[in-house]
Amino acid sequence: MTERPSTAVRPRTAIVAAMAQELAALLAHLDGDFTVQAHAGRRFHVGRLHGEPVVLVLCGIGKVAAATTAVLLAERYGVQRLVFTGVAGGLAPGVRVGDVVVAGSLLQHDMDASPLFPRWEVPLTGRSEFAADAPLSEALAAAAAQVLAEPGHYGAAGLSDEVHALGVHEPALHQGLIVSGDRFVSSAGESVALQAALPAALAVEMEGAALAQVCHDLGLPFAVLRTISDRADDSAHVDFMRFIEVVASHASAAIVGRWLQSLPGR
Ligand code: ADE
């Protein structure tokens, strides 16, 4: 049985998963007495994970889905912080399949209201990058570093032949810029263009920067944790599907679990 943390009132954490497989891995660890509330086409699982109060929900894909989910979690469920977990395409040369990226900041790579506003700037906000909460991100990165250093961090699959076949070697942890847009980046040409335009970008996905903008508006601390499923190139779609089947859920559930168990006051 999971031990409950000592104090009665603990901050409620939203954990937003990008894919059903990831949500399933997290749900498997929920403490027994949770409720499921259907709203706005989503199922919000309200309960405790490793003894900590949480709301677990599947986000949906793309920036609008992420923004809607974040608003609902803040306004309807009163969460005090938000952690997004999912997969991403690697952009920077050293970001390989199986690596983990914790966002330092996020940017919408498809935002362009030029010449009225600088490219990538969210109009009328004066900013293009939205910083993730530093203490939360550091704590998640520390949990990720611990999990990745352990043998068998990809769950029962371990670093099996099938995982190796996906191109996964010893996974590394990265922290920095993640870019988001309403496109699955699946050609070398597009990936190279993104890297040339945004050389600091480590990884590309479809939700994080939208969630970041909403959390920024609401003053809600957030972090984004991504496992690299593909290199955002011509084989991205093949690698993506296989990665999700074989490993995607294990790493993020283990990292989020480790982080929750490391929270102060337990
Ligand atoms: N999520 C995972 N891989 C991705 C890619 N190549 N493009 C956009 N989002 C992704």
UniProtKB/TrEMBL annotation:
Domain Nucleoside phosphorylase: 13-254
Pathway: Amino-acid biosynthesis; L-methionine biosynthesis via salvage pathway; S-methyl-5-thio-alpha-D-ribose 1-phosphate from S-methyl-5'-thioadenosine (hydrolase route): step 1/2
Documented EC number(s): 3.2.2.9
Gene3D superfamilies associated with the record: Nucleoside phosphorylase domain
Stored CDD domains: MTAN
Keyword terms of this UniProt record: Amino-acid biosynthesis, Hydrolase, Methionine biosynthesis
Name the record gives this protein: adenosylhomocysteine nucleosidase
